[in-house]
Amino acid sequence: MDTILFESTQLNIRRFSPGDHEFVFELLNTPGWKKFIGDRNINTTDDAIAYIVNGPVASYELRGYGLWLAELKSTGQPIGMCGPVNRDYLDSPDLGFAFLPGFEGKGLAYEACMAALSYIKQNYTADSLYAITIPENIRSQRLLERCGFAQNGLITPSGDIPLLLYRLNLQ
């Protein structure tokens, strides 16, 4: 089992490893992920492994942080991801998160995000943290606001669709 970075009441949060490919394959192919985040073309086990290695694992090595896996303490079942992501078009990290449909609406994403924010404040030096979402993703907007983020306008990275930009002061 991989080392737990931090925990909350119901969740253990740890780094991803290539062995998490089945979970990544499932999550990135959910209708919600594809609608609100976008199709990452994860069509095979090898695609899922490459996503983990070139995404979260590469970020851990380069920056010391990245998306983390959220799993239930009671069973060890992976249910989501949450953590800081670097985006070329933002001057501070962005808090990303996504959960399997069967675990949405149960307060687990909020629990994971609040635990991640506490961990980030204690272990990293960023003054602020951003979050982005498409305007249609009302649930993510509500979660961000509940976590203390404030809407900070629109951003259109590299001519893509406009995204709502949220910001949280960490000081």
From TrEMBL:
Alphabetized UniProt keyword annotations: Transferase
SUPFAM superfamilies: Acyl-CoA N-acyltransferases (Nat)
Ranges for domain N-acetyltransferase: 11-171
GO terms, molecular function: acyltransferase activity, transferring groups other than amino-acyl groups
Descriptive protein name: N-acetyltransferase
Native source organism of the sequence: Mucilaginibacter terrigena
Organism classification: Bacteria, Pseudomonadati, Bacteroidota, Sphingobacteriia, Sphingobacteriales
